[in-house]
What we know:
Radius of gyration: 17 Å
Strand content: under 5%
Distance between the termini: 9 Å
Mean pLDDT: 87
Amino acid sequence: PLQFLAAGVADCVVVCSASGASVIGVASGMLRDSVSIPIGPTLLVLLLGMGAFLSIGFIVAGFSKTQEATVPIINLISFPMMFLSGVFFPVSSLPKVLAHIVQYFPLTYMADALRGLMSSQLSLGSAALRTDLLGLLAWLVGTALIASRVWRWE
Length: 154
């Protein structure tokens, strides 16, 4: 089971990395000189984010009774997160209470970090990027610990 799990994680990392590189490559080609993407910090953000979201998936899979039940549960988590985390709309446009809550979502950390890196507003030494990286790392460690307790091979 551990080898199968590791292979699944490795597969996801490879596919997601290729997908991310494709998107970044196309964006860089289209925008030419108007954007310079720091590869190292961007990859770090993507890897931490992938790990956190994979762990969330393993938690949901661990609690789901059937494979068919997993997808709707993941959708209940991911769609609100996508719309509230500043991916499509700025978090500042949300009510203050909600904005305070969503600032701790893993996708908020990831979106803020990637947006800042790609717009050259953040660098590896900036406090805001460190905050985003630490937030993603906390989500990764926390969700990985929970996933290791609830995920089971069946």
